[in-house]
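for the writeup, i need someone to sanity check this before i put it in the appendix. the sequnce is what the collaborator sent (i think, or maybe the updated version? ugh). structure was predicted straight from it, no edits. if anything looks off just tell me and ill rerun, i have time this weekend
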Amino acid sequence: MKKTILNQILSFEHQYREAVLKFVLIVLIFLLNNSAVLSQENNMEYNKLTAEEESVIINKGTEQPFSGKYCQHKEKGTYVCKRCNAPLYRSENKFDSQCGWPSFDDEIEGAVKRVPDADGRRTEIICNNCGAHLGHVFIGEKFTDKNVRHCVNSISLNFIVGEKEVKTEKAYFAGGCFWGVEYYFQKKEGVLSTNVGYMGGHQENPTYQEVCSGTTGHTETMEIVFDPSKTTFEKLVRLFFEIHDPTQINRQGPDIGEQYRSAIFYIDDEQKQVAEKLIRILENKGYQIATEISKADKFWEAEDYHQKYYLNNRKKPYCHAYTKRF
């Protein structure tokens, strides 16, 4: 009897040690796989601002008219966000409106976001990459043929002399909760801006609640505007496959439903071919890929509180992690 009890105790001790060892190995593997996350988070740091710059860029103040360094500025180049260096405006779109602040009648595609002021009287413009306050936009003044004036604080800008024209392309990815997908792409080199929304459904202008009900056919999707001279669609797709589990069907981690399905919505045949090529590579490695490849249709931007969610709330994804697959 004593020998039987002793054997049971020894067996339990062995199982306990084995379980602890497995746990330690899992933790080590997780830390190794997520080493890229640490460098990504370091890249989330923005340029250090002076108190005067913070009063405008962060606290939405306004510099004195005719006091800014770019008010009468006429060099050729690109105006970028002082907080995050994202390209915002080209010099050829700058004009003299005599208003006391730099004026532009167009922005680099996807670089600037419009947000109605709380009083409903004006429309604020912010950097779509980091949310830095730029100024306000006005329509109908007829200064130029485009009939638009971006009135921007000089203090919100930096200038790159002779910068070549920034050409942009778009990409659309769905891989579970769009908060987590956006988190990993926000500071990817070459990404100019990100927006989260809905695609792949049949209902016009769906709300978050309607998409979550599973009746609209949409999936939570991220729109990326990127500079093809600094990154490629293939690099973005490779990252996409490594920050979510492309083998899961209609779910991602604890999030379950058609709205969390994995999908790449291609713009043209070239993007489609790239996506299909990378899927074949993963399948040859033994992965059973569930990611759907579909032609991009209407992208419906999600509600404001979903945009830059983890960045604005200083949190980290709960259902996305980096796993090297290529």
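The first strand starts at residue 77 and ends at 81. The CA atoms of residues 185 and 236 lie 8 Å apart.
thx in advance!!
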